[in-house]
Specification:
Layout lengths: L9 E5 L2 H23 L2 E5 L6 H8 L9 E5 L1 E3 L10 H8 L8 E3 L7 H12 L4 E6 L22 E5 L2 H9 L12 E5 L1 H4 L2 E8 L5 H9 L17 E6 L6
Parallel strand pairs: 1-10, 2-3, 2-6, 3-5, 6-9, 9-10
Antiparallel strand pairs: 4-8, 7-8
Helix pairs in contact: 1-2
Length: 249
């Protein structure tokens, strides 16, 4: 990554999570329509988390998008969790968003019994072409996808198997996805930070007080592996949507 160039994300703050979602979705829809107009297709990377629900719900309601021309990917999936489990990220995306836009195509990460092979397959599936839009969030520890600190900001891989740190696993319990820390998988397949940022536009939806410190660190800490969110400042077109609870300013 080019750390010498430090871009300030475009930040907008909204009074509620719903208002944040409407604004982020409006921008995402505009960029998707542009991609379809320019190239007849759009490639979009999705995150699966409660922080994304308002954005994705609003995006599904945006008019004037030919969803049959949109190809969706997603950025991480647990290893060792049954595909039908409600906590599986692909399942969550179907329930929250994809079932509302059935004309679109979707490529799930499917770790199965060989997570490393699944990661390699997903690298090939994504290819090297930039995404038109990446819709992501920010973990309480500053992670992007499941690239926990210390994260490799120059990872040569596009997707890989990672061990989840306790903060990431605890977040899943705190958000109500699992009853206890022992229930949360210890590993996941994740898309790496360089591959996530190989995109025309990055739209980050980051609501809620638990994310305030991560936002502060992302905006003010030196760009580096201890605060993965700082990698967003290496990209010239990052749009950061906050609510009044997550805005540290």
């Amino acid at each position: 990554m080019t750390v010498g160039i430090d871009h300030a994300p475009q930040i907008s703050t909204h009074p509620t999570r719903s208002a944040l979602g409407h604004a982020a979705a409006a921008l995402a829809a505009e960029r998707i329509r542009q991609a379809i107009e320019w190239t007849s297709a759009a490639r979009v990377m999705l995150a699966a988390a409660p922080s994304q629900a308002a954005t994705l719900t609003s995006l599904a309601e945006e008019p004037g998008i030919d969803w049959s021309r949109v190809e969706f990917f997603h950025m991480d999936e647990y290893v060792g969790l049954p595909t039908e489990a409600p906590q599986a990220f692909a399942t969550w995306l179907h329930r929250t968003f994809l079932n509302k836009v059935p004309q679109a195509s979707f490529h799930p990460v499917a770790p199965g019994s060989d997570a490393e092979a699944a990661a390699q397959y997903y690298e090939q599936l994504m290819g090297s072409a930039p995404f038109d839009v990446v819709l992501l969030g920010l973990g309480v520890n500053g992670h992007l996808a499941f690239n926990d600190p210390p994260a490799d900001l120059d990872d040569p891989r596009a997707a890989k198997v990672v061990a989840l740190d306790e903060t990431s696993r605890r977040q899943q319990v705190d958000e109500g996805h699992f009853a206890a820390l022992s229930d949360v998988p210890t590993h996941a397949v994740t898309v790496t930070i360089p591959r996530l940022l190989n995109a025309r536009d990055v739209i980050a939806s980051v609501p809620g007080a638990p994310k305030r410190q991560a936002v502060q660190d992302t905006l003010t800490r030196p760009i580096g592996p201890d605060h993965p969110g700082t990698a967003l400042r290496t990209h010239a077109r990052v749009h950061l949507f906050l609510d009044t609870e997550s805005d540290p300013r």
